[in-house]
Amino acid sequence: MRIGFKLIAEGYGPKEIVRQAVAAEQAGFDFVEVSDHYHPWLFSQQHSGYAFSMLGAMAHATETIELATGVTAPIQRQHPAIVAQAAATLGVLSDGRFTLGLGSGERLNEHVTGEGWPSVTVRHEMLREAIEIIRLLWQGGYKSYAGKHFTLDDARVFDLPEAAPRIVVAAGGDRAATIAAELGDALFATEAKPELVEAYRKAGGSGPRYAEVPLSYAATEQEAAESAHKIFRFGLLGWKLMSELPNPINFEAAASWIGVDDVREAFGCGPDLDRHVEVAAQFADAGFDHLALVNAGPDMDAFFEHAQHALIPALRNR
């Protein structure tokens, strides 16, 4: 079991995100991952720094911890050729510690180019082509590609790491899990659904399985639940809705019915180690072996102290 930390780029500024990555390394986490978003989800989240810039700074500021996008969408806002170049550069800067997490994206972040938001079927087609282009460019030399959705014209990524980064593909259902198995090196999910792991394995996937574990650390359960409700209640909306809404104002409206008790039930809230392990165990029991812990609590440094001395050892010894 490998234990990672999810950096909440929508809740903190870029410099603080890099500082937290350093603190996560010092606390003993195996990896950190950060979303590549253009907008935050809610009004209470007033940040959304560019993931690849922050990851470059993390590569310079850390020594051993693995770095990952969790995840980026190479289908609209960013052409896959640009993602291939950015990921290759991070592979060089981090001395091979970078993992490229990919997904079919959310309208929240991709609609900003004004091209319209494709159906999920089309997005999956685009993701397949994007992964093919990224892998093609990582082979070295000049490459061209003519697909249904993307064209690559005589392009070359000059700075390549010694080994290509691992590609992790996000999945919320069987179709995306199949893409992860067929074109990716690993699976990524945000829900403790054993059927996702089963679909991944059925399609031939044998790599690591990443998942985000919702926690909120604070001195009391109530304080933790209120903090999680303030900054993370959107996570209870479900992926089908989350992928379709265009702006924070829409998420505010959609999440208006979600109360503190709803969040308390979904998150491991408070200072209790057993509750945190219980929530993480749901993901481990579902078949995930790379757990990225989310902390929606008000004091990140207190969480790192808790993780270093209690939570990480407990999860490793489970």
Automatic annotation (TrEMBL):
Q: Which residues form the Luciferase-like domain?
A: 13-289
Q: Which UniProt keywords apply?
A: Oxidoreductase
The organism named in the record is Barrientosiimonas humi
Q: Which SUPFAM superfamilies match?
A: Bacterial luciferase-like (SSF51679)
Oxidoreductase as a keyword of this entry, yes or no, is yes
Recorded GO terms, molecular function?
Answer: oxidoreductase activity, acting on paired donors, with incorporation or reduction of molecular oxygen
Q: Which InterPro entries match?
A: F420-G6PD/mer, F420_G6P_DH-rel, Luciferase-like_dom, Luciferase-like_sf
Superkingdom in the source lineage: Bacteria
- The molecule here is called G6PDH family F420-dependent oxidoreductase
NCBIfam families this protein is in? F420_G6P_family
For whether the record's keyword set contains Oxidoreductase, the answer is yes
